Structure formats: C-alpha cells, structure tokens
C-alpha cells in the first residue's frame, strides 16, 4: 500500500455490492484511494468536497469478483461480502485497503491482523455473520393470508438478502415476506423468484384469525412451561438478545 496515492476526492455510488466492486476496479487501476466513500442517498453535499460519482459497471465488478477468488482466496471474498453488509460507517475504505493489500499478499492477507484495516474487516464479518446466524433461529413467520407468511426483523446489519436465501432453501414452496423495519425493506418470495423492494411500496395486511389463535396458544405454552423460581433473564438475553424481542411472538 506504500506506493498508493491518497486523493482528495469523495466517491459516490449506488450502495450496492457491485457498485462497490466497481470502485475497487477503478482505484486499483489508478493506484489511488479516495478520502471518503458515500452512497448517493446518504451524502450531504459539502463545498469542500470534490465529488466523483461512480456508476456501477457489472463487467468490472465481475472481473473483481473472479480476481478476488482466483488471486487471493474464497475466504477473502466471503469476508468482503459479509463485511460489506455491516452497518460500519467507513466500511468501504477499510474494505478497499483490505482488498488492495490482498492482491499483493494473496491468501496470507487474512493472517495479518496487525494491520488495522484487516482486523476491522474480520470483525465486521464476524458481527454480521453472527447476527445472521442468530436470526436464522429467532425469525418468526406468521400467516397473514392463505399460504402467505410474514416476518419482521430489526437487524443491526443489512442481512435481509442472506436471510432470504437461507429461508428460500428451507421453505422453497412457501410464499413469504421478510420485512426489515429498520431499513424499510421487504424481501418478497413467490416460490420461484424473490425481489427486495421498499416497504413503502406494499401494504402488509394484518395476521389471519387462525394465526391469532396459534399465537395465543404459543404464548400460553411459553408461560406454562416457564418456572418463575428459575428465571434467569441475563442468561436468556445471552441466547436471545433483548433488542430482538419486539419481533418475537412469545415476548410481544
């Protein structure tokens, strides 16, 4: 990284993974690193900034994808994708440095935790993957219409798509909606295809009468099997963090 030039530019992109990989391609060719990177929707104009809009180029992003897997490692590609889904404020800059160093060091880049940006990327990946793994078990579907199920989540990280992939594999013949209320996003799956849209574009109906009955039974069961004398809230929150309780039937 010592021969790289830092430029006083602010890069703006569409916020997608392919958009970010386009930035990786451009900066690698120019051997430059921008001052900051923002998504177009989250950027507040500043007269001191030199703005440069980077349009997503799928040919360039695919070349970077193949280059990471071939010249660094699949583990690095995995780390990059999960870190990109993180809610870390400056994730793009950390990832740029991580990948550019990766093209120099190869697969050994993931062992160089003494480099601050490598350490940061590994931790971003761990947090994102950990939340994804936790929500695979905590996500609750409820029937809102005949053969249509709905679930709401409030994740710290943008994991709606990877959660969708998990449940599409588990429930391939089930129509469902996963609603990320924190980002106002909905993943819609119709047993064939899925898409992610703004939750403002659809109206979600209330749960069915049958579902209400089952929820009441589940709450009664949850209350019945609990032993008040052995209640351990601290242990419960370790396995089922309190920030997720608002989306759990038994805790509503």
Structural class: alpha/beta
- What's the tally of helices? 8
Overall radius of gyration: 22 Å
Helix % is 40-55%
Q: Give the strand content.
A: 15-25%
The general outline is: elongated
SSE run: EHEEHHHHEEHEEEHH
What is the rounded distance between the termini?
51 Å
How many strands, which pairing sense, and closed or not: the largest β-sheet? 5 strands, mixed
Extended strand count? 8
Overall mean pLDDT stands at: 90
| Unreliable spans | none
Strand order of the largest sheet: 4-5-6-7-8
Please give a quick description of this structure.
This protein is of the alpha/beta class. It is built from 8 helices and 8 strands, in the order E-H-E-E-H-H-H-H-E-E-H-E-E-E-H-H.
Task: Tell me what the structure shows.
The chain has 252 residues and is an alpha/beta fold. The model has no long low-confidence stretch (mean pLDDT 90). The protein is built from eight helices and eight strands, in the order E-H-E-E-H-H-H-H-E-E-H-E-E-E-H-H. A five-stranded mixed beta sheet has the order 4-5-6-7-8, with helices on one face. A hairpin with a 2-residue loop joins strand 4 (142-145) and strand 5. The chain starts with a strand and ends in a 13-residue tail after the last helix. Helix 1 crosses helix 2, helix 1 (17-30) packs across helix 4 and helix 2 (58-71) crosses helix 3 (74-84).
């Amino acid at each position: 990284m010592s021969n790289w030039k830092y430029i006083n530019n602010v890069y703006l992109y569409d916020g997608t993974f392919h958009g970010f990989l386009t930035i990786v391609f451009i900066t690698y060719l120019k051997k430059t690193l921008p001052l900051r990177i923002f998504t177009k929707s989250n950027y507040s104009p500043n007269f001191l900034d030199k703005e440069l809009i980077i349009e997503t180029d799928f040919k360039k992003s695919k070349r970077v994808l193949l280059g990471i897997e071939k010249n660094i490692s699949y583990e690095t590609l995995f780390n990059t994708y999960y870190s990109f889904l993180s809610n870390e404020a400056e994730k793009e800059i950390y990832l740029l440095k991580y990948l550019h160093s990766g093209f120099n060091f190869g697969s050994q880049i993931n062992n160089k935790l003494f480099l601050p940006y490598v350490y940061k990327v590994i931790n971003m990946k761990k947090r994102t993957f950990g939340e994804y793994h936790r929500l695979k078990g905590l996500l609750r579907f409820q029937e809102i219409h005949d053969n249509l199920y709905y679930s709401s989540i409030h994740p710290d990280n943008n994991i709606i798509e990877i959660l969708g992939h998990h449940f599409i594999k588990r429930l391939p013949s089930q129509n469902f909606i996963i609603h990320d209320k924190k980002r106002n996003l909905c993943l819609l799956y119709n047993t064939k295809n899925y898409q992610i849209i703004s939750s403002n574009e659809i109206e979600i109906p209330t749960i069915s009468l049958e579902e209400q009955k089952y929820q009441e039974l589940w709450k009664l069961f949850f209350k019945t099997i609990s032993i008040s004398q052995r209640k351990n809230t601290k242990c419960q929150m370790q396995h089922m963090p309190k920030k997720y309780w608002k989306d759990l039937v038994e805790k509503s």
